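User: Run a structure prediction on this.
Assistant: Running it now.
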Amino acid sequence: MRQSVVGLSAAMMMMAAAGGTLGLLSGCSSIVDGHTQKAPMMAQYLTGNPKEAEKQFAELAADRTGTGDELMWRLDEANIKFENGDYPGSLKSFERSEALVKDFDSRATVSVRDVGAEAGSAMVNPNAIPYRGFCYERILLNTVKALDYFALGNPADAMVELRRLREYQKQLSKRFADDLKAEEKEIQQGTQASAQQMGAKATSAQTDALSFGSIQKTPAIAEAVAETDRKAANAYGALLNPFAVYMSALGYYAENNYAEALVDLRSLYKMSPNNPLFVRDYVTVGRTLSENFPDASLHRIQPWSYSLKNNIVYVIFANGQGPSLYQVKFEMVLPWVGYTGLAFPRYAYHPALWQGLAITAGGVTERTIPVADIDAVAADEYRRRLPVMITRIVISYLVKETAALAATEAARHNGNEYAYWGTMLATSIYKYMFNTADTRCWETLPKEYQMLHFPIPANRQVGILPFPAAAGSQPTVIHLKNTTRFAIIYVRSVNGPVSIKVCEF
């Protein structure tokens, strides 16, 4: 009887390793993944009911305050408030998001016992780790926050945010490498802590199917890797986001600081040397400052015939729905452990209804120019994180199976068949409940950003029409104030109609 109690205790240890108490697990992604939790409000958001989506996001963000999932909810809450025109509310949510990020980044010293406990729980379920945000999300946090300030007529504070994101992008490669090292350390500590807690090891025969090499060959994972490679091929290198860099340059235009804008334009030219917007801006500013261009072909490019910092309109088109992570599961029943399964996150990429905007100003119609593919930016980071991500998932899988084996073998050795099958049932239920992929991400971002700029027309009217438009569609006409010398028109389309914000200075 004592041995059957030991077996059941081992099953209970699995629960302890995953979080310890129901209080820790409630209100987080440990059982129901983040993407599934967001489905009701995303349905409202995608079907043209953004106010209801905002209400639901705000309620969930408040409910998750203080949990490891809070940042995920705050980012979506802040973004949808910006899109709905609640700029002070958006800033408040972004500031809370920044505070969470800083808190995560500053946790340099904790006790060995705490590290072991957190890392051990993370090995059983990756959702036990507080969500820290992807690098591309952190960059866009400051970018959208700057747009909040522009919308409030406060370009000085917008520039503070743009300088922050510029500095972050400079440090991005090192920060990313440090993040991966920290994850690898957590994996190592978690493996050691879990081994000590479980006090048992699976045999090689039982774990051959769980090896890193075997899981890499799993068709669904191989397919996910191939799709990610295709998407990431369009990325811009070094985890950079050209929209954020261009917004930094735009801010320096507004400050009449061509010298600092030129620094950003050099970076943009390296990222996308064939982008006509970046190239002509670079040539225009570079010639003004006697830049020594790295490519002789740039001398043949005509600069813009107008100023980039005065009497100008910038149009930003945030188009479509950005990538979202969803859960892929492998499940089976094996004779020696009962239920077994593995779950991993995979990106879903969503089609955009519109190809771009047709902008009419001064009797001339031009189309917006793609400047940043957020699908590619996200895929690039996912690909770089994938080895550590899969390693964590594999170890999580092994830890759970090791604990299940310890529990069922103890019951088997006791000779009590009821205890054996009861223990297998208990561990199978547990593993089923906690076989959850980490699908937490910022889901309300656009699929892509497009831009265009042009001089303020004499009649101060700008026509905006998404394309391809239905026959007979008429553009939305924006009337700029007579006092405006610098304007930003922000156009958003998630899955159909466009919303337009006009910031005039």
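The first strand starts at residue 312 and ends at 319.
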